[in-house]
Amino acid sequence: MVVAGAGLPGMRDPSRSITYFERSEWFEIGILSESDTVLALSGPAEEAGRPLDDDAAHYLARCSGGYPYAVQLYGHHAWRASTGQDSIDLEAARSAEATARVQLEHGLYANRWAQTPQAERRYLAAAAEVAVAGGPVTGRAVAAHLGVPGQRLSVVRARLIHRGTLTAEGEVLNFAVPGMATYVLRRFRAGDGDPPTE
Most CB contacts within 10 A, which of 8, 47, 156, 173? Predict the structure, then answer.
């Protein structure tokens, strides 16, 4: 018998791991490319008899950012928005984007923000501000944006990466969940955060 499951990387944390998970074989999916995301959206819809129009598929792929849970969520809401139609068109995709974004904000984004200590929220906001400005988000860029030496923020950065809120590809930092940077900025600018400390 084979049992397959999916979850976030934190499931592999030894302090939180369930005994039978320790013997599991793990495969990291990561962020999907746009072409893989289009396939993940279009394939099931085609098989279920309500295909996705090409422009709708690419629109949803871009909105989801290739994050597997977001892909699933956008696809689900596009299916529901197209009830009674022969295919899922761009109008249904746009309706799905609005609905799914609200669900992401109230669920995934809000939960991650709530679990982030106040000392780390300013770092996330600075990373989001650097990203919005169009520059590469690195530890050095975030520190410069905050006007403090980089080494003072190394512990904060490491915690956010360990928790899975940020990912690191070499020196470049990314929000693990696409779209969260906008949410972080809105929450922080509303006064929900403090300057980071070690």
Answer: 173
User: At CA 180, angle to CA 172 and CA 175, rounded to 5?
Assistant: 20
Residues 175, 177, 181, CA angle at the centre, nearest 5°? 55
Q: Which residues pair with 52 in a beta bridge?
A: 88
Tell me: domain 34-113, CATH 1.10.8, correct? Answer: yes
CA distances from 164 to 80, 81, 157 (A): 31, 32, 11
What is residue 194's predicted lDDT score, i.e. its pLDDT? Answer: 47
Q: What share of the chain is helix, strand, coil (3-state, %, to 5)?
A: 60, 5, 35
Look at residue 77 in the predicted model and tell me its pLDDT: 97
Q: For domain 116-189, give its CATH number from 1.10.340.30, 1.20.120.530, 1.10.10.10, 3.10.100.10.
A: 1.10.10.10
| Nearest CA-CA partner of 32 in 178, 181, 183 | 178
Q: Flag the least confident range among 8-17, 18-27, 31-40, 173-182.
A: 8-17
Share of the chain above pLDDT 90, in %: 66
Dihedral over alpha carbons 160, 146, 130, 181 (to 10 degrees) = 40
> CA-CA distance, 27 to 18, in Å (whole number)?
17
- In the chain, domain spans: 34-113, 116-189
